[in-house]
Amino acid sequence: MPKMKTNSTAKQRVKVTGSGRLRRRKAFRSHLMENKTSRRSRRLDRETDFSKGQERRVKRLLGR
After folding, report:
1. Are 47 and 25 in contact (CB under 8 A)?
2. Does residue 36 surpass a pLDDT of 90?
3. Where are the domains of the chain?
4. Within 13 Å of residue 44, how many CA atoms lie on the same side as its CB?
5. I need a surface site. Which of 15, 27, 41, 56 has the fewest CB within 10 A?
6. Of 11, 42, 8, 38, which is closest to residue 26 (Cα–Cα)?
7. In three state form, how does the secondary structure of 1-63 look?
8. pLDDT over 90 (residue 64)
9. What is the pLDDT at residue 1?
10. Cα–Cα distance between 47 and 22 in angstroms, integer?
11. CA of 39: how far to CAs of 4, 16, 46, in Å?
12. What is the Cα Rg of the chain in Å?
């Protein structure tokens, strides 16, 4: 049986930590930033974890 291919877009968007946790960037940070408060911008700037259900799906996309 052939090897499973890693999903290229998932590979670019997800970072795997040393302990194996999956990290992602938050949405709504790309444009229209003048309307958003500084506090909101800082909050959106941080990386975050996936929810449990999404984490299972993303792990499968990454071939883990």
Report:
1. yes
2. yes
3. 21-62
4. 12
5. 27
6. 42
7. CCCCCCCHHHHHHCEECCCCCEEEECCCCCCCHHHCCHHHHHHHHCEEECCHHHHHHHHHHHC
8. no
9. 85
10. 10
11. 42, 27, 12
12. 15
What is the length of the chain?
64
> What's the Cα-to-Cα distance from 56 to each of 19, 35, 64, rounded to whole Å?
16, 35, 9
Give the pair of three-digit tokens for residue 40: 């909101």
Confirm if 5 and 63 have CB atoms less than 8 A apart.
Answer: yes
> Which residues, listed in sequence order, are joined to residue 49 by a DSSP beta bridge?
23
Q: What is the overall mean pLDDT for the chain? A: 94
Neighbours of 36 (CB within 10 A): 13
Q: Could you report the per-residue pLDDT of 4-21, keeping only the tens digit for each?
A: 899 999 999 999 999 999
Q: How confident is the model at residue 31 (pLDDT cuts 50, 70, 90)?
A: very high
